[in-house]
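# step 3/5: fold
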Amino acid sequence: MKLLLPLALGATTLLLTAQQCSSGPKAGAAAAIAVDVATMQRTWLHAHEEDHGDTIVYRPNTYAFPPSRGRTGFEIGPNGVLTQYDIAPTDGLERRVGKWRVEGNMFYATFPEKNSTDYSLKVLNLTAERLEAVRKYVDQ
C-alpha cells in the first residue's frame, strides 16, 4: 500500500508533464501558421461585412459578394509582384504595384512610391476561400 501512493503521484506528474509538452509553450494560445504561398497567390478582395474585432477578412475575387460601394483588395502574383487595388477618387479602382514576401505567418507588402504606405498582415487563417488577418501599417 505504501508503494501505491508514490506510484500514483508519479503517474499523475508524468501525465501532466506530457500534456504540457504536447500543448507547447503557450498552451491555449492560437498557434502561428505558416502561410501557404500557393494558396495566397490570387486576387483577394476585402469582405468588410465579415470583419470582426481587429481581424480583416478577404475573399477571392470570384466570391459572390453582396452589393457594396466598392471593395479594396490585392493580387498576389508570381515573383513577388503585388498589385494593390484601392478605391480611386472617382469611385473606380486605383492600382498600385509593389512587392510582397512571406515570413512564417507574416505577409509584407512594400511599395516604391513615397505616397504609398507599406503594410503587413499577420495571417490568422488561410484557405482557398477565406483569408483572415490583422493588418498593420508601417510608419514612414
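# step 4/5: annotate
The radius of gyration is 22 Å.
# step 5/5: archive (pending)
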